[in-house]
Automatic annotation (TrEMBL), chains A, B, C, D, E, F:
Superkingdom of source: Bacteria
Name of the protein: Aspartate/glutamate racemase family protein
Gene3D superfamilies xref list: 3.40.50.12500
UniProt GO molecular function: amino-acid racemase activity
Family of this protein: Belongs to the HyuE racemase family.
InterPro entries membership: Asp/Glu/hydantoin_racemase (IPR015942), Hydantoin_racemase-like (IPR052186), Iso_Racemase_Enz_sf (IPR053714)
Pfam family, one: Asp_Glu_race
Length: 247, 247, 247, 247, 247, 247
């Protein structure tokens, strides 16, 4: 199998770290095909940015669909996820949604721990979009808004462990999601120090993409797809997808 | 006052009809500045299309903000609305949201009547996004999926009146929203034949934009805005808005 | 146009202040016809009081409907609003509902700031009644229960600014509603000091009444009205309205 | 014990029938003190009527509270219930609420069967007000709107049995509530013909009033009561209750 | 009438205390038939324990149904309640549900006060199961997890009074439920010190069982029952109930 | 890895069919260890049966936990799932929950198609328990209640295909879950005839168990577990699990 790992952020180092985690997750069962956005934002953190980056994600998927079995949108916040599900005839998985659905099968209530209060609203919106907001105990972050994203994993390690444990003991979370691409890979490193399972969203999304692809089912010719449309000024591959001329 | 009427669809005739209704709504109190998308889709009808067209709407707003007091996103489905509210320091109103909020002040329950079952899911999603889904009696449409959008107002007039009355008498709607830009202007024409108030979304959105602009308040420097971001490959005006360098 | 501004409280000074704000809101587009209750309570603050004052509001409307285009119920808490919508064939708007619906078009989440914890439950009930409780961050008040209602605007000015800013920065409110007739007119005075738009409910209700009246629609002969009823011991005008003999 | 049975409708025959059922329910454990409204409506069926009749109910309670242990508001729709709970220091029970809460202890989902589609909206509102709307399968009525309220028990008997059985077999109701004072006393007569328990709301309300009175607890001096208020033009007993000068 | 009081916990002293309260509640109107589990747990406090104890409760009911008019499941958490309602043709009432439904007829919002934070999750789950979570202000407990269940009523008396009053004044609870069998009987003792009605769940459950039994209705032959099933390895009486061969 | 596949039903043929599907799902990545209940019911279809069978499932897990990496509860309805998650320090997955969570990553709305209306309530309860009821379009079944469970896959094949397609085209389901162990294995056979992905719950549950086990995390020593308890009369292995003495 081949999984397309679409990073709608422009930071190649993030893509590489996430691709490495994805490869460790799938082992020899699949090939990971990583893509990094070449326009847009270094790191998406609002609805406005997700509006634009989601369109870029659709374009990246449309242009790289050949031979692909499933797609991972590798940004917490899942930009473009709903639209991609309408357009493309294969499983498409988002990091936030996959982390939330996985958490919901590990325990009753889950928390998101992340690195800056600037992400709080954006991440809470993501959980609400899944429909599982009633099982969410909230976003927990350190107080400082400005952080060095490249160093956040080491700089904030102890704070994040403490926040995760407080989410469990004080807020009653059964599972902790370590949200945000800058924290990719940290979950297994701190797992032994946190009193509940800790989910790494990129690992969860990769595993869920494999799961959905393995379940099969008929994605092509679905009755619930929107009608094909002509489009002007879009990347040709995306225009063809909108016209329902592919797959 | 000056209102920017942003049609993220590419159909100029629709923009013109909607601008005429907007002008009739504001009279001499404001100038209407209409814009039509120059790329994208003739008529948005799905999440995938709204993902892309919403980014185009943000660009159109960013490039035409000078001297504007409020913005109307002139497509039922409100593409780009949430992002625009984050970025721009003035009231931004969507057709679906404005119609729904207005309906909710006219009665307890409201229905949307529109011209094709292809719009049902998209419009239901729009109502859910407002948070008022609990007062919504559903989308009512004729059975035929394929329609001539340019002629739908006259071709389906009788069907739409019948559907509106059924929404009232059978489903208990207190108010009927006539959804979709192709029906702009039909509401006052059929009002006398429908046993409940009928809302024209472009009139509602224009009136609400005036209302919000008139209420004043401090849109600039809001604490709840996201942080500014650098961006690559965006229209320069939109990049500056994302960087929070304007207004 | 002529708007009936019905204050179901007995405090004439409040009516006068609210009428002045309403006049500033409508300019030369409409005449404001203010009414003050001649029985009932100086200031409504509970369900029991609203039960009684709502009946008085219905009576005041029924007796003064001639030549009126829309009605504003000028008490936060909207006593009598739902019943008035059933009985009268024109737009009827409440201060709390209009403020909430307007706030919901300015941002995602809104807060109510008011002058005494005695109002907390009553105002929270009002928001819940609109159906938008999921977007409400709560009622914020100073700690002291006993206040001099006539002086509360000046005495508590600094406290209210601080509470409004805390609602924004700590609770994530995008918009602040300054609830309660004693605070009418304060919103524009403190707007520059609050890091989010601040809504004055009487201005919002007046503007929304104009908006709804401008949208037209068929209020008379609505299919969803209750059946006419005979009544005994009511003010004659109200009895005629209940009998569906007027308008 | 003494229970005040307050009929906020003006129909004495209804009060008498309901008092008889209440007496059969309490046996020798309590005395039933029935009251019929002397102004208002023959039969309440809308929010507007409930707004007014609820105020009348508060007055009736305030004037007859001496030696009373609990109050039953004997109209389906519970006019005045929430306000009465704020004002009076004893249990106050409504017919709709008591029927719903009792039904919710007999099965998972419940239906309301009543005599005219004119009651549908009003009764659905009552269920929503309890918070148990998620367990409600809806209001079922015969098609004819105009009925002779005095004869409805015999005229519609077979229709109501059929509707009740359909609510059970087709909509999955576990319990059927026979809503509306004109059907008081019919439940036990048709019980053997309906394939689920059938609740008579006046019996349920009487039994629940006894239950709550028996549970004791401190109704006087509750911290969650609103502050006392002066009032003008109210019945003196009600004004004293609003002023928190009684009980 | 005869009420079966089924304690699915193994602590006889608890059963005896609860039976005494039940007897005081029913007076000479009914006979209380108490049962204590002979296997299972001293005191149920989790979903896992309730899964098992609920099966034991079904067995205890099936084996002792002769001549019984209603059943009380005498453990807060209501183990086996939903299954018992499916199987047995008479009213079955749970302590948590009966307390919640009774509280909801005494006021708008209710709190649960109990003796250990270990019960918090379990009790919150119970409220959610009733559907009335929207009116629940939460579980309040002392900080210490380890308590001597037999002495908790006296040891923690002052703490519980303080917690109950804080639930009322700080969280806005109108009614307080004193949750957990070890607190049975404490409610009337502290009622005068708490500024809101305090509910004793075993008294509430007993009273509600009497109420439901008194309302009559057809429990046998209900259309919404599941189909009969053969079973192996169950207590014979329970197997017969599952086979729908009894009552 | 080793997965315990616990069938709390007593039908060995079902276990064998499900084990075969599970083996096809995991390939050489894991060993499937199937278990069939030796007491209880041939096929669980109600809350009462699930109450008892869930306790049996806990016992089966406790007695067979050695060397196991994850557990699948192989009955649609997930008897014992919540309790098992509390007790055991490894991932535990249910068929209904896993199917629902997987469906929710394939599309916006999902339907359950099954073989008899007798399952409708039970399956709807299962979806509600996941928290995703808002995305559920309902249970669709043939009209006949009595079916030969062993032959249902072939007898009803055409009916089930038609129901699945109607769920998609008429109710707007994006994904169809083929609910109930008797239909295990049918999904891939009919996939090409249904206009949406069709999920086989046992395949979904097996895949999700692998996914969760692969994500790692600290299940042992979780802070949110209930306290250990002594127990009497339970299978010794289950008693030790309840006492928190294992794993």
């Amino acid at each position: 199998m081949r999984l397309l790992l679409v990073n709608p952020n422009m930071t190649v180092a993030m893509t590489e770290r996430m691709a490495a985690i994805a490869r460790a997750t799938v082992g020899d069962r699949a090939e990971i095909v990583p893509l990094t956005a070449t326009r847009g934002f270094p790191y998406i953190a609002s609805r406005a940015e997700a509006q634009i980056a989601g369109g870029i994600a659709l374009e990246m998927i449309a242009e790289n669909l050949d031979g692909i079995d499933a797609v991972v949108i590798a940004a917490f916040g899942d930009p473009g996820l709903m639209g991609a599900r309408e357009l493309f005839d294969l499983p498409v998985v988002g990091m936030a949604e996959a982390a939330v659905m996985s958490a919901a099968m590990m325990g009753e209530r889950f928390s998101i721990v992340t690195f800056s209060p600037l992400m709080t609203r954006w991440y809470a919106d993501c959980v609400a979009a899944t429909g599982l907001g009633g099982r969410f105990t909230g976003v927990c972050t350190p107080a400082a808004r400005e952080v060095d994203v490249a160093r956040v994993r080491s700089d904030l390690r102890d704070d994040l462990v403490a926040l995760a444990n407080r989410a469990v003991t004080e807020q009653g979370a059964d599972v902790v999601i370590l949200g945000g691409a800058p924290l990719a890979g940290l979950a297994p490193e701190i797992a032994a120090e946190v009193q509940a399972p800790v989910i790494d969203p990129i690992a969860a999304a990769t595993a869920q993409a494999m799961t959905l692809a393995g379940l099969g089912g008929r994605f092509a010719g679905r009755a619930c797809k929107p009608a094909g449309k002509s489009a002007i000024g879009l990347a040709p591959a995306l225009a063809r997808a909108i016209a329902m001329e592919v797959r």
